[in-house]
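Q: My collaborator sent me two sequences in one message, no labels, and asked for predicted structures for both. Can we handle them in order? The first one she listed is below.
A: Yes, handling them in the order given. First sequence, followed by its structure tokens:
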Amino acid sequence: MEQITTAIPAKKSIALVAHDGKKSALTLWCQKHQDVLSQHNLYGTGTTGHLIEKTTGLAVEKLLSGPMGGDQQLGAKIAEHEVNLLIFFWDPLASQPHDPDVKALLRLAAVWNIPVACNEATADMLIASELMSQQIHRTIPDYHNYLADRLD
């Protein structure tokens, strides 16, 4: 498939997700980086979004809980270019009943070439980057031309 270049805006739309065993770590991380996060649009799955909003006062657009479809809602927002950065504190030591949804979410982040942090150290590096406040370019699949070629 051909690729095109598109922009991630200076004001990012950030998805915040955490497995149960990592919710407190993500909440603390959001408190630590509240000033930067307040400059961007935030999305969160179910309980995670509520916890972040309650503890930080940040506005979070809350979706369904991950196992109830929230991971898939975020995946759709990534595919529709509404979310352009994913912070997902996942718990690699715990079994997750919705693991296929999690893998699909991470796959979509890779397909659409958005920055992803799956742990605190990587999230710290992303949030501290000078690119957090700048428009950046990325290559993505040229899906519209792909479809046009198939329908001709």
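Q: And the one she listed second?
A: Here it is, processed independently of the first:
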Amino acid sequence: MIKIAWHPLYAHPLPEGHRFPMLKYELIPEQLLHEGIIEQENLFQPEPVDEGIVLLTHNKDYWAQLRSLTLPAKEQRRIGFPLNAELIERELRITQGTIDGTQFAMDNGIAFNVAGGTHHAGTNWGEGFCLLNDQSIAANYLLNRKLSKRILIIDLDVHQGNGTAEIFQDEPRVFTFSMHGDKNFPFRKERSNLDVPLPDGVEDEEYLTLLEKNLKKAFERSKPDFVFYLSGVDVLATDKLGKISLTKTGCKERDNIVLQACKTKNIPLQVSMGGGYSADIKDIVDAHCNTYRLAFNLFT
């Protein structure tokens, strides 16, 4: 059974001005249930991750300031909103959902987190609405527990996974692949193992050609036994922040390329949903739900 991490806190308690994009965390499972793609038993609510697991990835002082809500105001502005205890708990549950998903993926081929993809958080910083880097923490968890030997992180959010690249810059067992807008946030990029910077306005055909070419390269170079996939839908032409011009059909084919590659190679993958900021929430939800629709066709 394909398992999906979800929790009521995923959509709360974000400050005014950030709530609209977060509606998707409630609407995605509702839509999948409505369509009959999933049942309630597909959903699970993760507990907060243990502090010791967080510290496999993040700096002790940074984590202590997050936990005690004493992160300096300048650093909170870099994250994008002021901290509160519920936001910290939210991040801890998101992270545990991704970790739990790794085991479910090993059992069933694939697992999802309705939230996650917090790829701008680095070893000792938060940025771009990201406090803890869920997939990086989960990757280090797998390595630490000797559950995986070589990991590939595929980041197809429109923004570079700068935090992920920084965390694993000296870790040869983790290969980071980021395909992102060259002139988009973050404006100071880190170096992934494979970066594919895209000019503004890239459309379906060019994007998908580049993805197929570079995904093959990423698999050949990394030889992974586990894959993390960040499937942000801020690559849509309708996205307010993306600057890339994919149709929903193109975005769906992007997901199909990644999922088919993992299925064919029999490599388990965990999927975190990443960003999406289209003006119409229906575009965001439908594009994310396409990822689930594909997965349920392929893996069940």
